Amino acid sequence: MKIINAWICRITGNSVLPIFGDIIIEDGIIKKIKEKHFSIKEIFRITDDKTGVLNAKAKVITIPLINFHDHLYSRLAKGLPLSGSMDNFHNILKNLWWKVDRALDIDMITASAQLGLLESVKNGTTYIFDHHSSPDSAKGSLKLIADAINEIGLSAVLCFETTDRNGAVSANEGINENKSLFQNYSNKNIKGLLGLHASFTVSDKTLSEASLLVKKYNTGIHVHLCEDKIDREISEKNYNASPVERLVKFDLINEKSILSHGIYLNEDDYEKIANYGSAVALNLDSNMNNSVGLPDFKIIPDEIPILMGTDGMHSSSAKSLKQIFLLYRHMGKSFDESFRFIQKIYFDQIKFVKRFFPDFTGLNSGDLADMVIWDYIPLTPFTKDNFWGHFIYGILESRISDVVKNGKFLMKDFSLLIDEDDYIINIHKEGNRLFNKFKETN
C-alpha cells in the first residue's frame, strides 16, 4: 500500500517535523518515506487511482489520537428519563451513572462498546484507555469489550471499576474481573490496568487486594481521583487519610497508573504523585458538564505526565486537546505559555502510551503504520517551527478523512470499511432496552 502526496508529521524527539512526500507500507510497517518537492499545481493534476495507492492531495497525516480516560459503557446513556435531584455531583452519580451501570447486561455492554469504538474510529482515536463499570454483569464483561476492540481493530488498555458501593460481594467480583483480564484477555492490542472507583467508595480491604494484583501482574491502577470535593471529604472522614495518601499507603500508584480528573488535589498530593511517576488524566468537558470545577494547572509539577480523556462524553480526543488550549488562554496565559503547555501534553501522551505499547508509531521508517489523515491542506508554509499553529487552529478543527491501523484502512474517504449498518441496528435495539429498563427503575 502507498499513500502519496501527503504532509507527514513525523515525531523526532520532542518535535514534530512535517515533510511532504509518500509513505510505502508493507506488512503493517512503514517501509519507506520518500520526501519530495511540494507543488500544489502538480498534486492536483495527478489522477493516479491505482489499486493500493491513495493520493492524499496535500492533506496532513499525524500519529493516531489517544483517549486516556473513556467510559465505553456510557455511550447508550443519552436522552434517558431522569428522576431525582441532579443538583450536585454525588446526586448525578446516584441518580444517573450508578443506575446506568447497574442496568447494563451483556447485550447492552457489547452494543455500547461497539458504538464508542465506531465513534472513536471516526474521530481518529485508535488507542483507548477504558474504565468499565457494570456491577450486576461483571463476570466476562471485559471479554465482551475486548472482543469488540479486536473485531473493529483498535488498541486498548482495559479495566473494571472496583468499588464497595454495592457491597463486598460486588467488590470481589470487580477484583476477579480485573484478574481475569490480566490472565485471559491480554494480547498485542489489549492490555490491562487495575480499575478503581474514587477513594470514597473503596474500602481498605479492597485496596489491599488490589495492591496484590498490581504487584503480581506488574501493572498500575486506573482510578477516579478527587473529581469532586466529596472524594476528599468522605475519605478523610472515614479513613483519616486523603485519597492520595490511601493510594500511597497501599502501593497503588506507579509509573503505569492513571489518576483521572485530579481537580481537588493540592501541592502535597502532586508532590507525592510526582515521586511515583504516575500520570494525571484531565477530562475538562466532563468537569464543566458536572460543574465540579477545573484543575489548578499552575500547581501541577512539570515532571507529572498530563494526559487527556473524554470521561465517556464523546470520542474526540482532538476536541479535548483544543479545549485545554483554549482554557489555558482563558486563564490569562500567553500564547507562548499555552503552546508550550499543549506541546508538553502531546509528548507526555506519546511517552506514556509507550509504557503499554512500546511500538507506538512516530511515523518514521520502520514504525507501525498507524496514522490518521486530516481533511486539512496547509495553505501557508508548514514547518517544524509553525506546526503548532497549524495544529491548534487548522488540524484540530478539521474532519478526519482516513484512519490506518496496523497498515490497514479502518476508514477511507470518510467511510468506515466495516458494515456499520448491522452494528447500528443492534445498538439502536439495545439503546431502547436501556431506556425502558431505566424508566422502570425510576
In short:
This protein is an alpha/beta fold and 442 residues long. Helices cover 40% and strands 21% of the residues.
Overview of this protein structure:
With 442 residues, the chain is an alpha/beta fold. The protein folds into 2 domains: 2-63 and 368-416, Roll (Urease, subunit C, domain 1), CATH 2.30.40; 65-353, Alpha-Beta Barrel (TIM Barrel). 40% of the residues lie in helices and 21% in strands. The chain is built from 14 helices and 18 strands. The chain has helices spanning 40-45, 89-103, 106-122, 141-152, 168-185, 204-216, 229-239, 243-249, 267-276, 284-290, 317-330, 335-353, 387-393, 420-441; strands at 2-12, 15-26, 29-35, 53-55, 60-62, 65-70, 125-130, 155-158, 190-192, 194-196, 221-225, 258-261, 279-282, 306-308, 371-374, 400-405, 408-412, 415-416. The strands form 3 sheets. Strands 1, 2, 3, 4, 5, 15, 16, 17 and 18 form a 9-stranded mixed sheet that branches. Strand 2 and strand 3 form a beta hairpin. Helix 3 (106-122) runs parallel beside helix 4 (141-152) and helix 3 crosses helix 14 (420-441). The longest helix has 22 residues, at 420-441. It starts with a strand and ends with a helix.
